[in-house]
Amino acid sequence: MPLLCRVTIMTLLALVGAGCAGSGDESVNGEVLVSAAASLTEAFNVIEDAFEDANPGIDVSLNLASSSNLREQILEGAPVDVFASANTSNMNRVSEAGAVAGEARIFAENTLQIAVPAGNPAGVTGLVDFANQELLIGLCAEDVPCGDFGRQALDNAGVTPSIDSNEPDVRALLTKIEAGELDAGIVYVTDVISTEGGVEGVEIPENQNVVAEYSIAILVDAPNAEAAAAFVSFVMSDAGQGIMGEYGFIAP
Amino acid sequence: MSETTARKRAHRPPALLIALGLIGLSVFVIPLVGLLARVPWGNLPELASSPVVIDALRLSVVTSLTATAISAVLGVPLAWVLARTNFPGRSILRALITLPLVLPPVVGGAALLFALGRRGLIGEPLHAATGLVLPFSTWGVVIATTFVAMPFLVITVEGALRNLDPRFEGAASTLGADRWTVMRRITLPLIAPSLLAGLVLTWARAFGEFGATITFAGNLQGRTQTLPLAVFVALESNRDVAVAISLIMVAVSLAVLIALRDRWWRAL
Predict the structure, then answer these.
(1) Structural domains of chain A ordered from first start
(2) For residue A158, is it left (φ>0), alpha (ψ between -120 and 50) or beta?
(3) DSSP structural state of residue A116
(4) Contact B219 A141 (CB under 8 A)
(5) How far is B149 from chain A (nearest CA, A)?
(6) What confidence tens digit (pLDDT) does each residue in A149-202 have?
(7) Chain A contacts of B236, Cβ < 8 Å?
(8) Which residue among A72, A164, A179 places its CB closest to the CB of B136?
């Protein structure tokens, strides 16, 4: 927070007669609020720790929700510094509203997989099973990126799904599959990895699959633009990309 | 200073109280004004009659009324037991019943899923025996809303039963009425205003239920997508529809609360 920083500066001046304490990385400090897609939860938690280790003066706060939800918060004036969207269309909407500072950049790619409960009790083999009315099928809601991509994949496969629930975000969908309450759903490859065996993945062939492009940008109204820039460069750096890779994301 | 002016001054509320009260009022009024400012009045009829809204409205009315009816049938006896019998652990039981009032509804929904889901403690044998699956069904919505809303009825009715003068019921018994007749002819009529207030609160809570429903029953138009769920989904796709639904919810809830205000104040 700028005010907090100012207070800190004044305290330091009074105490030691010096400027704002340099913390390795010039004078960038304060809080930075990052609104990130729900599917980035694990990877960004690790990135947050690594970034804060490298920049002790900066405190990152993650605001995790569906990209469409985050987009609405930003368009309603939420004091966000960085937006990391699971698709380009939500970023474009924010950009068209003039809320993006500079250019949004693609920082990762992700593909889709069918998630089924451990042991695949319903014996799901591919997208064709999504038309089976006997199965309990879940997708992300239509306007959430994973819902949009999932429907594209079903379209590519020529399958009309028999949907039992349109979940508000990919994590909610994953939770219900992991609990065994849904027989199958379409999520990102990285989500299947993140459950560490909680759900099993069933491959979607390349000719049916969709590539999700993750886009990141600093916002025009960013309360802490400097820290935001540092965070984005960290995500794009080798260190950041290495962490993304560990969680199954593909470098753009 | 004459005695009457002194009395007048004593009756006038202090300016500080009025100021704080007005700020308190603004907490409720400002969001409503914000909502009204966004209402697309021009195509409101068209938006309000779209299939998504009609389906959600129908489902909300049916499930909230069903949940209220179930709460009445099960909640009044529960309140009676709490108010009239004495057994060890009663305060723990009352805390358990009050829990859904303070618990995040999502937690309630998850708990329901673990208990009544297809792989749940009770849900699994139920599914094996009958093939019944409660999550992702309209009954799932009714169960989730009953869980969250019934405490309002139990708490209100229990309070009324405790405040009831036991001499009325005693007199009826002395005159030869059996316990069922006393309940029907004396107890229930005496607590009627509180019962009604409890029913209205229960219905209002059920009508607005979101977290437990989406967690336990999922979200599918026509089957489990009630008005609050439809608002949530529409906020991200079509904000005008979301605002239209919100307006319907505010209007319906406000109409019911105002219509019952007289009995309301007397009971609470």
Answers:
(1) 2-108+214-246 (3.40.190.10), 110-211 (3.40.190.10)
(2) left
(3) E
(4) yes
(5) 23
(6) 999 999 999 999 999 999 998 889 999 999 999 999 999 999 999 888 999 999
(7) 66, 68-69, 71-72, 141, 143-144
(8) A164
Residues 92-131 of A with CB under 8 A from B: none
**Amino acid, single-letter form, for residue A64:** L
pLDDT digits (tens, 9 = 90+) for A49-94: 999 999 999 999 999 998 999 999 999 889 999 999 998 999 999 9
pLDDT band at B184 (very low <50, low <70, confident <90, very high): confident
- Binding-site residues on chain B for chain A (CB distance < 8 A): 113-114, 117-119, 133, 135-136, 214-215, 218-220, 224, 232-233, 235-237, 239
Distance CA A205, CA A200 (A): 16
Domain-located, residue B38: no
- Could you give the count of Cα atoms lying within 13 Å of B176 in the half-sphere of its Cβ? 0
Strand partners, A32: A60
In this predicted model, what pLDDT tens digit does every residue of B192-223 receive, in sequence order? 989 998 999 999 999 999 999 999 999 999 99
Residues from chain B contacting residue A176 (CB–CB below 8 Å): 113, 135, 218
- Please, what is the Cα angle at A10 between A7 and A14, to 5 degrees? 140
| Apex B245 CA angle, B240 and B251, nearest 5 | 125
Specify if B169 maps to a domain: yes
A245: closest CA of chain B, how far (Å): 30
Total of domains in chain B: 1
Show residues of chain B in contact with A143, CB under 8 Å. 233, 236-237
CA distance A145 to chain B (A): 11
Asked if residue B18 belongs to a domain, the reply is: no
